[in-house]
Every structure is written in structure tokens, then in C-alpha cells.
Design goal:
With 212 residues, the chain is α+β, with helices and mostly antiparallel strands. It has helices at 15-20, 32-42, 82-94, 131-134, 145-150, 182-191, 194-204, and strands spanning 27-31, 46-54, 58-60, 75-79, 99-100, 114-116, 122-126, 140-143, 160-161, 169-175, 209-210. The radius of gyration is 18 Å and the shape is globular.
Length: 212
């Protein structure tokens, strides 16, 4: 049994349509909240075949060395897709920078849902893949680890980030009904070996955390 792998760094938005159109049999780039959000929007009939790893989202800056140096009115860039926007705002709240309204729907929040912003931070919504490029123009940005790695930025340079218990594990996604195909089960088994776990731990030094 053999597998063919394709890498699309510049347009991950192609991967779910390709899966729906049966151009590929599985994809590996998204977490469950994103999957649920896009499936609701697009009507995809997908399911999770297995969890692989977490890439803790982090706050990065080229202008300051700690969050205490954020000045009143600082510009903070955040992802503009619903699940990661919510995730970013929750991270900022956990670090005492803002306070969100209570009772928000799961994975749904925008700057309009900020209850308290004592430092009057300005939030700029940016396509997630462009956030690393926005760093020179803002005081800080909340960025997914995969984009940080693509930009050759050290993930451990984040001023703060999610802990390893994040619920945003990256998963193998397949069409509903395909999760029990022998080749899909074999793919999950290969990706969840002790050797794969050791590789993630050794290479990324905690910036990417195995979820198996």
C-alpha cells in the first residue's frame, strides 16, 4: 500500500473543495473548530479520521519584547476566519489584555464581542496566511504556528501562546463513510507511530505538540 502526498502552502482553501470533489482522499491542515465552521458554510460531508498534533497559536511582535510593553492604542492583527479569530481573542483574554462578552457561541467572536478593552487596542483582521507579513506594520499579531514556520520565524519567540492542552488539534479529514477504508486506517497508523511523535518533539521543541 502506498500514498501520494501533495503540499499546498499558498492556498489551503483548495484542500476541502478537492476532498469534496474526490480529487484527494484525505487532507491534513485544519482543526475541528475550523472544520465545523467551514462545513456549516459549505455543506461539506466530512469527518475526522484521527488527531495528529496541536500547533499552539501565539502572539508575535517585531517591536516589543513583552506584553507589558504594549501601549495604549497599540495595533494588534488577528486572523479573520471565524474559528481562529475566536481563538485569538480568547488567547488575548487569557493574558489579561481584553475581556470578552459572556455566553458567546462556540468559536464565534469578533472584536465587536469585546466587553472591556482598557488599553483601547486597535484590532486589525487579516487573512491568516498574511499575518507574518503584517508584523512590520503592527505592534503585534496572533499567528498560527504553521504560518510562523513557513516564514522561518522561531515559534519559541512568541511573547505568549496557548498551552499544550489546546482543543485545536490538527486532524486528518476524510469524506463521511471513508474513515473505515483500510488505506485511511493505515495512514492514521503511520502518522501516529512513536517515531512520528519523537520527530515532532525533537524537531519543534514544544512548538508542535503530538495529540496521540
Amino acid at each position: 500500500m502506498s500514498f501520494s502526498f501533495y503540499t499546498l502552502k499558498d492556498d489551503e482553501g483548495q484542500l476541502n473543495p478537492a476532498l469534496a470533489d474526490k480529487q484527494i482522499d484525505a487532507n491534513y491542515f485544519q482543526h475541528v473548530p475550523y472544520l465545523e465552521s467551514v462545513s456549516k458554510e459549505k455543506g461539506y460531508q466530512f469527518t475526522v479520521a484521527g488527531k495528529i498534533h496541536v500547533e499552539p497559536i501565539g502572539f508575535y511582535s517585531q517591536k516589543i519584547k513583552s506584553k507589558s510593553q504594549l501601549k495604549s492604542g497599540a495595533k494588534i492583527a488577528i486572523p479573520n476566519n471565524p474559528s481562529n479569530e475566536y481563538r485569538s481573542l480568547v488567547l488575548l483574554e487569557a493574558n489579561g489584555l481584553i475581556k470578552l462578552k459572556k455566553g458567546l457561541a462556540n468559536y464565534q467572536a469578533t472584536p465587536a464581542d469585546i466587553l472591556s478593552n482598557p488599553q483601547k487596542f486597535q484590532f486589525i483582521e487579516v487573512d491568516a496566511a498574511q499575518l507574518t507579513q503584517s508584523l512590520p506594520d503592527v505592534d503585534g499579531a496572533v499567528i498560527n504556528t504553521n504560518f510562523v514556520l513557513d516564514a522561518k520565524i522561531d515559534p519559541n519567540s512568541a511573547l505568549f501562546r496557548e498551552n499544550a492542552n489546546s482543543t485545536y488539534a490538527n486532524v486528518i479529514v476524510v469524506r463521511k463513510g471513508d474513515e473505515n477504508r483500510p488505506e485511511i486506517k493505515k495512514l492514521i497508523a503511520v502518522l501516529q507511530t512513536s517515531a512520528a511523535k519523537k520527530f515532532l518533539l525533537d524537531k519543534y521543541k514544544g512548538a508542535v505538540v503530538p495529540e496521540f
